[in-house]
Amino acid sequence: MSASKVSPTSRELFDQYLRSNHKRRTAERFAILECILNVQGHFSAEELGEMMKGQGYPVSTATVYSTLELLVECGLVVRQRFSDKGNLYERVLTSAVTHHHLICTVCGKIKEIRDQSMSDLIECRNFVGFTPSYYSLNIYGICASCSRQRKRNKSQGKK
Ligand SMILES: [Zn+2]
Ligand SMILES: [Zn+2]
Fold first, then answer.
1. pLDDT value for 26
2. How far away, in angstroms, is 108 Cα from ligand 2 center?
3. Does 132 lie in the same domain as 63?
């Protein structure tokens, strides 16, 4: 695994964070970060473990969880709780590509949307005594296929 695949900023940020908090800078932790940087979208800790295994770099579940916690603490990864199905993670992107989530409360499907006017509205806000670093907007509702399913069930119930 070559170090050049990791963008220097993320790797440096993590390195700096581990140093200043007197945490061990292990090869596993950096390999996990590298893996996350190549992932698009949301993933669970279990999925991340599988990806590491798939790359020929198996790490223990405990290491995956503890590294994710460290990455959340240093602001490179966000923990999202979209539903009661457990936590998902995603890497923090720059505000230029901030996205919002449409979450189906029936099947749990998550759709990512990008809406510049919505982002502008949030990003130009000033909060007294608070400096935001990132945000994530979750909109809950029912997806198209679930609402079709519901209509079908309703019409069947009527007969
Ligand atoms: Zn997302
Ligand atoms: Zn749905």
1. 95
2. 6
3. no
